[in-house]
Amino acid sequence: MIKFENVTKKFGSTVALEDISFEIEKGEFVFLTGHSGSGKTTLIRLLLRELSPTSGKILIEGKELGMVRKHELPFYRRKVGVVFQDFKLLSNMTVYENVRLACEIDGHVSDVEEKKIQEVLHEVGMTAKQGLFPRQLSGGETQRAVIARVLVMQPKVILADEPTGNLDPQTARQIIDLLEKASEGETTVLVATHNALIVNDLKRRVIQLKEGKLVGDCKKGKYID
Amino acid sequence: MHTAWKHIRRSPYQALTAVFIMTLTFFVATVLVVLAYGTSTVLRYYETRPQVIAYLKADVTPSDVSSLQVKLESDSRVEGVKYVSKEQALDIYKQATSSNPLLAEFVSPKIFPASLEFSVRDLAFAQEVISQLGEEATIEEVAFTANLGDSKNLNQVVERLSSVANYVRIGGAVVLGFLLASSFLVLLIIIGMRISSRREEIEILQLIGATSGFIRSPFILEGMFYVVVGSVVGWLLTLLLTLYVSPSLISFFQGVPFLPQDLFSLLELFGVVLAGEFLLAIILGALGSLIAIKRYLKI
Q: Is B58 part of the contact surface with chain A (CB cutoff 8 Å)?
């Protein structure tokens, strides 16, 4: 599903990622761990094609990401849901409107999609708060709304960059549970985090980065400090 | 459309500024178009009304008159040749002095010469035609009726009217050019500000897979909205102003049709102006927004 082949990313003379190679299967749930500045966010941004690698190849479903043309990029991104630590919801839209927006960008919102929006909001426990604006929500609720927006797009890959960074342990666990549930189908989930508690508790595959290098990749891994 | 409307409502003062500037531009544009139309109409009026009257000598025979009339009718520079008898000339005199009937009471048709009246297709031919006609043996005197202020001959009349029309057209085009340029800049600045204030939104939209068309279209619609609303309001203000001043204009021009005299024709004229301005507004709005997007929105 996702394959990194000797990927290096440099910003000027600074090496953010160096010779990274790994493969993630369809439907897999993977933690990407490492300290701040280890290259986690750069790796996520490479997968979003916000950045291009300096060298090496990134393949998604066998297709090289570098070959995706500029006009094809929005269609690629609709297959890749993204969850950020700072949420990135549109502040002038309600929870419902934010979730609906993901359908709108794909074209006309049919009755089937309206039903799907409500299902997803129910799934993340936001049905009662769908009429509220992001500023009226707690951190955990906002992140749930973001996950609803991602799920409604039925993405093939979900990338989460520190999704629990601003949340208390209990809420953080609820968010990770939602992401884990999403991977029960065929959705691949990659969660960049340094939340050791959750990583150790879930015992999922862990890819560990340190100073831009891949230093560990193990099934049922643990967070190594 | 919904998103564009939301954007407009969120910053009402910016929207109001844009609409105000556009209204001013299109108000002046409509006034200038009406003025250009009026001057062209006046020029055409003088070109097509019977401007030349060839007074016939008292002893001319009907066959002489007929042959001269045929000659004039075959002249490509001349149109609308009409014979006016002594009796008809008296009638015209009576009509002209109807406010003082005593003036007409003591005159007989004998003192009025018969004449041939005609107009020239283009006022530029007038002087030439008059000179040639003056050499005819049957002609006593040639006069022209087109007269403006202290004009001494037809050339002066033509020059005056043409220069007035040109001043209106050229001056109007310059003023309109400046106004359109400033409106265009205002639109660029406002759309640019809109884009800058929504950087984060744009980034989010890009991340969730919005196409550039989806991101750009609200900005384009917003720009078009300002210009279209401005054009309609500007046009409406000019229409109301014209309706208000038209009685004074009709009285001032004393029968010269500067503007259509009946309401239907006036509305027809304004309808054509509105259609043209609407089209211009759509082009200006779309172009201004597209340039602002190209300049400020790198996606």
A: no
User: Given CB atoms, is A149 within the 8 Å cutoff of chain B?
Assistant: yes
List helix spans (H) across chain B: 2-10, 12-48, 62-73, 86-96, 102-105, 126-134, 154-197, 199-207, 212-253, 263-296
**C-beta separation of A34 from A194 below 8 A:** yes
- CB of A68 within 8 Å of any CB in chain B? no
Query: Could you tell me which chain A residue has the CA closest to the CA of B207?
Result: A77
- Would the ipTM clear 0.85, i.e. be above it? yes
Q: Is A44's Cβ below 8 Å from some Cβ in B?
A: no
Q: Which of B10, B204, B211 sits opposite A90 (nearest CB)?
A: B204
Tell how strand B139-144 and strand A205-210 pair up. Answer: unpaired
Mutate: best of B204, B208, B216, partner A, most A CBs <10 A: B208
Q: How far apart are CA B116 and CA B142, in angstroms?
A: 10
| B142: Cα within 13 Å, side-chain hemisphere | 21
User: Which of A71, A92, A149 lies nearest to residue B208, judging by beta carbons?
Assistant: A149
| E strands in A77-138 | 80-84
Q: What is the DSSP letter of B146?
A: -
Amino acid identity at B17: T
Contact between A21 and A4 (Cβ < 8 Å) = yes
Q: Is B206 on the interface with A (CB under 8 A)?
A: yes
- Domains defined along chain B, listed by start: 2-45+156-296 (no CATH), 50-145 (3.30.70.3040)
Shortest CA gap B213–chain A (Å): 10
Per residue in A29-62, pLDDT tens?
A: 999 999 888 999 999 999 999 999 999 999 998 8
Measured in Å, how far apart are chain B's first and last C-alpha atoms? 21
The residues in A 91-120 lying below 8 A from B, measured between CB atoms, are 92, 101-102, 105-106
Q: Name which of A44, A84, A85, A90 to mutate to probe chain B: the one with the most chain B Cβ atoms within 10 A of its Cβ.
A: A90
Give the Cα separation of B150 and A35 in Å (integer).
94
SS (H, E, C) B32-92: HHHHHHHHHHHHHHHHHCCCEEEEECCCCCHHHHHHHHHHHHCCCCEEEEEEECHHHHHHH
* pLDDT digits 0-9 by tens, B158-201: 677 778 778 878 888 888 888 888 888 888 888 888 888 888 88
Q: Give the helix/strand (H/E) hosting A146.
A: helix A139-152
